[in-house]
Amino acid sequence: MGFLNLFIVALMPILKVILMTGVGFFIALDRIKLLGPESNRHLNNIVFYVLSPSLAATSLAETVTSQSFMTLWFMPLNLLLAYIFGSMLAWLLIKITKTPTHLQAIVIACCSAGNTGTLPLIMIPAVCEESNNPFGDPSVLTVAASSIELAALLPSMNVDSIPMQPTSFHATTAKMSASKTIMQRMKIITENVDLKKVFAPTAIAAIVGFVVGIASPIRKLLIGNEAPLRVIDSSAYILGEAAIPCMTLIMGANLLRGVKGSEVSTSVIIGIIALRNIFLPMIGKGVVKAALHLGVVASDDKLYQFALMLQFAVPPAISVGTMTQFFQLGQCETSVIMLWTYVVAAFTLTLWSTLFMWILA
């Protein structure tokens, strides 16, 4: 397949993301006020407690089997490697740009944590739906894409599930030695863990969906056109379908803050853009090639390899902005970084997706 045809295939899902994000951005404007701060918070709660659990449960129940579970084990390790390489590059960027201390954690988070949930969950099924995709029959690939992306979606949904109290944190650690500071931080994290959020609805729903998918007797009761209790799965599936559009609208609304600007330097923004959109995708390609060489990833599963590479090429995770709200520090700076990285990613992610498909094809 020619490079131009692959570019068109890669462009379609990016355009979908841009359009939906643009709608979220527009309805969050002050003169529209359909998705202001209060509405955004309520929609977040609906996604967190209802829509995302429905999506996780139904997707896992319908697609995961014992065989598919064994083939996807490398994906969490791939995510961990992306975090490690991103953190290392962020440390170099901080040293080169002499990033202020209060912004260093934001830079590390933006470089290490990618949007491995929302974007791939939209992009991979959209690529599979294209008739001229390089991976095969669209009807077969859509099912495979669902199981692949749920392995990546679940960790990203729970990144911000452990809240901490920043005021007491800074007050108690300001004058301590390094070892005592670490111990104090661990103590504060432990004391402020909300078990209801650690065991988040999505995580619980994922466990339920996994059990349903693996256990054949339960699966026959709930999944399939002849299942006696198929109405339960069908109803949850309808709710789950709303999760992705809502998450994308929230993403667009969160980017609005970046328009107002902040004190973050241009060199830091350019550095983050370069790391996330140039260096990390190159590293991701090398990681997947190494995994193929070692035999931990099947050489004939091109869609799985594409998903693994894509995890290195996505822009920063939107949940980074949520974390800054917990600390009440750097919210404007994070929004500016998000705005520019997502604007650039609209072009670079299309090019990287095209290149990945061209390599695999």
TrEMBL record:
It holds the Pfam family Mem_trans. Keywords: Auxin signaling pathway, Endoplasmic reticulum, Membrane, Transmembrane, Transmembrane helix, Transport. It is found in: Endoplasmic reticulum membrane. The chain crosses the membrane at residues 6-30, 73-94, 198-216, 236-256, 268-288, 308-327, 339-360. It comes from the Eukaryota. It is a multi-pass membrane protein. Belongs to the auxin efflux carrier (TC 2.A.69.2) family. Involved in cellular auxin homeostasis by regulating auxin metabolism. Regulates intracellular auxin accumulation at the endoplasmic reticulum and thus auxin availability for nuclear auxin signaling. This is Auxin efflux carrier. It comes from Hibiscus sabdariffa. The lineage of its organism: Eukaryota, Viridiplantae, Streptophyta, Embryophyta, Tracheophyta.
